[in-house]
Input
Amino acid sequence: MKLEKLKYVVTKVFTQNAEAKTTIVLNEGGARSSKSYSLCQLLILKMLSEKNKNILITRKTMPALRMTAYKTFIDILIEYKLYNRANHNKTSRTYTHDTNTVLFTSFDEPTKIQSTEFNYIWMEEAEEFTFEDFMVLKTRLSGKTQPGEMNQIFLSYNPKNENSYINKKIHSFKDVTLIKSTYKDNTMLNKDYIGIIESLKEQDEKMYKVYALGEYAAIEGQIFNNIAFSSEFPLVFDEVFYGLDFGFNNPTCLIKIGMKDNKFFIKEEIYKLYMLNSELIKNLKRLNLTSKNVIYADSSETDRIQEIYSSGFNVKPADKNVKDGIDFIKSCEIYTKDGNVNFNNELKEYVWQKDKNGNQLEVPVKFNDHAMDAMRYAIWSHCRRRYDLPNVKRLTGNVNIRVLG
Output
């Protein structure tokens, strides 16, 4: 069975993976090159067309897996009208079809990985793993096969770390297929996003290499760079407010800010592509937001703000002063959790632009900054409305952001 016969659009990245004849298949490329989507399509095809197969889809941590590959896999099944609720065991995080089982688990649950022999393994964001992790997973690639079949391990990643085990070791293995891809390989990508990726060339050369060209480069100049991790959040806050960054081709992002003892605690509530206002309003209701909850939203989207306001929500246009907002946020003590996957990923790569001579500018790179914008809208707008800036700085102290997971 070929996915094309099911009348679904595929890119050449799918075809190259489907035709790979090696045990290890590396998917190395830039943003939105269709790596993850294509691997989901391929594993769905194998689940539908083969027999007695165990498939593992994994990422280093469970919160990250839930938000990315696990969600994409299930979303594609729903989109293709192939999803069967009875086949989906959400407790064990498995999806079955006929004699095949797909397991979604992270490397921080080693007992689940060690107790099963797999025919296919997909390591999403593979640079997060260590070489030892990779070797452990490869030893589990021992499921029974029929004549003409082979077991395979697929790795997908943006090449951010030139010293990674993938670049330094696995690239030189013999039984390896390297599939390089960029946004140009994704025929489903819209022109607006193509413009965003290509604009990186003028903003940051290294980010352009990683996300546009799919080449190794170390991203530098992080704006909020004092980062730590903790799972402890207060059970009760002094007050709660929200930041909202609108999107469609880019994610719509809603961030919840809990304030306790002049410290700010982040929770990522919504981070989703192609979200219309009608769906956003349904999600706000699902989150039990009411007119008592203030939401600071992108002030350039006046029509969307008015529609949300008319639906009973206390949404206000945010103060979008980027420089002052960043300066203030850098003076605050802010915490987040591991479950804030997109927020934490953005934070690592929220960097200053550079001029043609490599000099740092006081302007952030406009790329994957939706959660950063939503956080700034909320904290800066809320505190500016309530206090004068010097008072707020005395309240919060002069502490750089600490990101807690």
Remarks:
- The longest helix spans residues 370-386.
